[in-house]
Structure to design on (124 residues):
């Protein structure tokens, strides 16, 4: 059974940093697209960043480029979030899907496996 577990969320002030982790188990880690998504109350789930675990390809939403960084190490995918803003406040989820990320990395419907989410709150 595929399991994705997020951790690292919390409350920070504007300009602060957080590092989210996504630990995967129950499936072959390599050659998957892993995406980080977020969803704020009343808003649609938004793709934030993606990474292909079989290579070095990374993808970012325009809203987080230059502030967020996605990486992988030892079957974990990380999301380093710097210069946080109040609009980054949301529940953050990681998701995994077989194959390359490509141009559809940000589409929630393509991912078959999801974690339970970790809350990020940025206050001014």
């Amino acid at each position: 059974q595929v399991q994705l577990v997020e951790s690292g969320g919390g409350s920070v002030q504007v300009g602060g940093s957080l590092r989210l982790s996504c630990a995967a188990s129950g499936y072959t880690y390599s050659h998957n697209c892993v995406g980080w998504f977020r969803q704020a109350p009343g808003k649609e789930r938004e793709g934030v960043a993606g990474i292909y675990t079989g290579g070095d390809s990374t993808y970012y939403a325009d809203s987080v480029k230059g502030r967020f960084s996605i990486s992988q190490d030892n079957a974990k995918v990380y999301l380093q979030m710097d210069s946080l803003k109040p609009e980054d406040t949301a529940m953050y989820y990681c998701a995994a899907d077989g194959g390359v990320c490509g141009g559809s990395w940000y589409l929630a419907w393509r991912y078959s496996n999801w974690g339970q989410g970790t809350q990020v709150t940025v206050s001014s």
